[in-house]
Design goal:
7 helices; mainly alpha; single chain
């Protein structure tokens, strides 16, 4: 069936990425800092590794990656393996993420006024 065929083709493309392809994808699309990209190059990290070996422990212990870029890279690598995505679609946004305030962070206006008058 066509869906299965497209899924297999996309996953095969990830497997076929060279070390240079992976590093370019990390730099240009996933927006990973050069200090981390150079470590992936030193480790000869290719598409097969991106698909099968990339995990939080590896990123922390081998690459020395901090939490923010680590989670971004894991999310984007997961997206890269999804059907219909290509290396340029699955990048981390350089835009800041705006998260809504949690209910406990909001202060009723009356309480806010009394704090301001103190």
């Amino acid at each position: 069936d066509a869906f299965v065929s497209r899924t297999v083709q996309q996953e095969d493309k990830v497997d076929l990425m060279t070390v240079e392809d992976v590093c370019s994808w990390m730099r240009d699309t996933a927006k990973i800092k050069e200090q981390y990209v150079s470590k992936f190059a030193q480790e000869e990290f290719d598409g097969w590794n991106l698909k099968h070996s990339l995990n939080e422990e590896y990123l922390k212990n081998t690459i020395g990656m901090k939490a923010g870029p680590k989670h971004c890279l894991l999310d984007k690598a997961k997206e890269l393996k999804q059907p219909g995505k290509n290396a340029h679609d699955a990048g981390c946004s350089s835009e800041p993420v705006v998260r809504p305030k949690a209910a406990k962070d909001t202060v009723p206006s009356r309480a806010r006024k009394s704090k301001q008058t103190m």
